[in-house]
Amino acid sequence: MTMNDLFLKACRGEPVDHTPVWYMRQAGRFQQEYRKIREKYSLLEICERPNVCTEVTILPVNNLGVDAAILFSDIMVPIGAMGMPFDLKRDVGPIIESPIRNMSDVSRLHAISPQEDLPYVFETIALLREKLHVPLIGFSGAPFTLASYMIEGKPSRQYLKTKQLMYSSPETWSLLMDKLGDMIITYLTAQVMAGAQAVQVFDSWVGSLSSQDYAIYVLPVMKRIFTALKTLNVPLIYFGVGTGGLLPLFKETGATVIGVDWRVELSQVKEFLGPDVVLQGNLDPAVLLAPWDEIKMRVSRIIDQGKKLKGHVFNLGHGVFPEVSEDVLKRLTEFVHTYSDR
To answer: CB atoms < 10 A from the CB of 52, how many?
Structure first.
């Protein structure tokens, strides 16, 4: 089977025949086959069954024609292995009955042994590498985003408890960042050793911080994570939502690809980060509900801007909505390939 390595080449800033594309949450509720699987299994049950997880991960590759697969899992999976039980409530998100409140709570978190604690993850990766003809992306949540769930106990809009702990107990915060940083390095290293060919770190909610707070409370651990992962010699993608003001600091982390949401244009990112940068993004997911001519116009603009960068991977600015038609995503994938091949 011939490997389609366009995604890896673009991530490395190498010449490509056309712009590669994949979508965050490309395996999910917009797919009829996935909805049928979810009638039988919960999300965590899918993750824990390598054969089912492999099927779900491959579905969008076969159905949409995307240039990369991302391991189907959840960012909270390794948190349970650290000793913090959680539940994934449908249409709500992670729920933690005993969230972190103090140093003692953080001290009880322990290091993980990925292959022993989460064997199903690595069995799935091995199966996927046997079956895929596109690169496999492994992933983890980032320290701030994971901490926000661990402290709030549920999804939040304001992150008040998280920021309160961060400001009022910097020693507790620092220990939590260190433990999460160690876990992420261990977990992602194990994913690459098992066969993942790139990794993405999701910092979905770090856009709630000012650049000053990010520099003080988050940047040090992100630098440590990406410095450690660089020895793996795979693309390292760092993504957050609402992080336009943080992108110069994202570049300082050492990530080799920066994910951009739809609130800032790629041409603007190029202006303040310089042309020697590889970006991923950044169509507003809601645009996929618009008429096709509107979608084409916006996608063309993104691709045109991406061609002026060192490298560009087309993606959405966040995950696919369940309301999006699979036919639209398939048509979009074909359009990205054909329009960029000029």
So the answer is: 17
Query: How many domains are there within the chain?
Result: 1
Q: Distance between CA 9 and CA 12 in Å, rounded?
A: 5
- How is residue 5 written in tokens? 């390595």
Structure tokens at 89: 């409530």
- Residue 247 belongs to some domain of the structure: yes
Burial 139-169 (b: 16+ CB within 10 A, else e): bbbbbbbbbbbbbbbeebeebebbbebbeeb
Q: Where are the beta strands (DSSP E) in 21-151?
A: 69-70, 87-89, 93-95, 136-141
Task: Please state, in angstroms and rounded to a whole number, the distance separating the CA atoms of residues 342 and 338.
Answer: 8
Mean pLDDT of the chain: 96
Active site residue 49: no
Could you say which of 23, 34, 149, 217 is catalytic? 149
In the set 5, 12, 67, 74, the catalytic residue is 74
- 217 as an active site residue: the answer is no
- 201-213 tens-digit pLDDT: 999 999 999 999 9
**Hey, what amino acid is at 17?**
D
Task: Judge residue 100's burial from the number of C-beta atoms within 10 Å of its C-beta, 0-12 exposed, 13-18 middle, 19 or more buried.
Answer: buried
CATH code of the domain containing 233: 3.20.20.210
Q: Is 327 a catalytic residue?
A: no
- Are the C-beta atoms of residues 16 and 9 closer than 8 Å to each other? yes
Catalytic residue, chosen from 25, 187, 214, 217, is: 25
Give the SS3 label for residue 148.
helix
Active site residue 224: no
Token pair belonging to 80: 């349970």
Tens-place pLDDT, residues 306-316: 999 999 999 99
Is 221 inside a domain boundary?
yes
